[in-house]
Specification:
Layout: H1 8-64, H2 73-83, E1 98-106, E2 118-120, E3 149-161, E4 172-182
Antiparallel strand pairs: 1-2, 1-3, 3-4
Length: 184
């Protein structure tokens, strides 16, 4: 059986290890908080992008569900902005949403929508006979097979402010999505 005559040695070691643990904690805590903030900001950005994408899809679906609605641009924009209510609620300090809707009239052998064809935008003139449709474009039949196709495209964008300024990443990023839908 051993007897230790100097219990003070063990006491000094315990105090030194407490100081080392406190120093390690002080060094790693800002790093852990920074990582948590970065993960939260990335999650917010991802949620924002999904919400903007869903809003664009809702507006395009509204316009494409009936050929009479393909040119109802204000209705498509309203549907998209209604779908954004959860991140544009009053009092949250959210940035304003920018939405636009267009209609593409293409023949089957044309380029994909958004890359070619004729684009019809809302002229705002209620006397325009083709304000809400591709009818005057398809008076002459398309070369190739099949009738002309009508697509609706709704674009929704909104600025996204990050929680903190991050190196290399801009402080304010605009999240923008475009949804294409073929009219039924």
């Amino acid at each position: 059986m051993r007897s230790y005559k100097t219990p003070g040695i063990f006491l000094k070691r315990a105090q030194k290890s407490k100081g080392a643990a406190l120093l390690e904690f002080a060094i790693t805590m800002p790093l852990l908080l920074g990582l948590c903030m970065a993960a939260t900001d990335f999650g917010r950005l991802f949620y924002h992008a999904v919400t903007v994408s869903n809003a664009a899809g809702a507006g395009a679906f509204y316009g494409a569900r009936d050929k009479l609605l393909t040119g109802h641009f204000s209705g498509q924009i309203q549907r998209a902005e209604n779908d954004m209510k959860n991140i544009t609620a009053t009092g949250t300090g959210a940035q304003p949403v920018t939405s636009s809707a267009v209609q593409y009239c293409t023949c089957p052998d044309d380029a994909a929508p958004g890359e070619g064809g004729t684009v019809i935008q809302d002229t705002g003139d209620p006397t325009d006979p083709d304000r809400y449709g591709c009818n005057s474009i398809f008076i002459t039949p398309c070369a190739g097979y099949g009738p002309g196709r009508v697509y609706v495209a709704v674009t929704v964008s909104q600025p996204f402010p990050s929680l903190a300024p991050w190196p290399i990443i801009p402080n304010n990023t605009t999240v923008s999505r475009t949804a294409f839908q073929r009219a039924q």
